[in-house]
Design brief:
The chain is mainly beta. It has one domain. The chain has no helices and 3 strands. Strands 2-1-3 form a 3-stranded antiparallel beta sheet, with no helix packed on it. A hairpin with a 5-residue loop joins strand 1 and strand 2. The N and C termini lie far apart (26 Å). The structure holds zinc ion (ZN). Zinc ion binds next to loops. The site of zinc ion (ZN) has 8 residues, from loops.
């Protein structure tokens, strides 16, 4: 599942909460940053 972080209030917004408008449902901010699932970058091989 894709998640977004709101740039304004820092809320995590699930992609399913966003329908047509890319917009934070909490503060109405329009800048959302796509988050990578499962940690993305910081995976370390052991
Ligand atoms: Zn927000």
């Amino acid at each position: 599942m894709t998640k977004y972080a709101c740039f304004s209030c820092g809320a995590t917004v699930d992609a399913t909460e966003i329908k047509e408008l890319i917009r934070c449902p909490y503060c109405g901010g329009r800048v959302l940053i796509k988050k990578r699932p499962e940690g993305g970058h910081h995976v370390r091989a052991r």
